[in-house]
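USER: Please consider what follows.
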Amino acid sequence: MADVVVITGASSGIGRATAHRFARTGRPLALIARGTEALDATRREIAALGIQALAFPLDMADDAAVEAAAARVEAELGPIGIWVNNAMVNVWGEFLDIPEAEFRRVTEIGYFGYVNGTRAALRRMKLRDEGSIVQVGSMISYVAAPLQSAYSGVKHAVRGFTEAVRAELMHAGSRVRVGMVLPASINTPFYDTAGNRMREGVPRPVPPVYQPELVAEAIRHIAERGGREIFVGGVAEAAAMARSLAPALTNQALPLTYTAQRAGTAPAEARSGNVFQSTPGDRGIHGRFGAQALRVSPHLWLAEARSSAEAVLSGLTRRAFGRR
């Protein structure tokens, strides 16, 4: 039996697109999200493709529930070969306007959810000395965004945590891989389901916007072939490079994205969105920005080639230092 793929945040957007992408590889899937309705819809779509899939409606911030799900996956489907951490929530608004409980919840799901998922996967993968963990980050992992202080903190934390775990695995000579995918703005329901504490307007993506299938392909590539990071969308890597090469100039430019993230000037109705509970109904894979979303990213092809080269270089480095 092929190794199992576990995908968190699988009920919509990037997670759901990723489930469809891995279904094409023939691997069994374990799908995790909080909401039962949309999650079951994803499971039915995958089953209709002839792929075995289990759905686990749970909160990734609940470490015991995540561990129990991982145990059940291996008991019923087989060994976990790929684990994709993607579950996330967000709330837009200035820092002092975001209630402490919402800020904390964004962190619990988006950061500790990734920690819990990584722990459950790594406990099993290290025993077999094989497997791949993919963290879905963001360009915000490198360059923070005004109006997204909670989300910016989460994505920076995930990147730091991931680099530390990767270093530990390299020190041990482990063949378990940990990589990150860092998308730019993606056309998903994320903007409509998130909390909104802005005083006027509603959240919108900063262009250019890309379709989630591009992120799903990047996830598949780094999971199967290794590599440290893949940016999806040239603007994502450009922003990261700008932060590294010209941090002062980047800081001056960041406030310009304030209005770019806000659509309209009408007074906003404060909402928690899906921060505390999943949004009812099934919103599918795509958001409402399809007319402006790009379906191809030549930059992604170059990034994939670079990640493959990094994987080869990593293998040569291990050999040079007498590691497997």
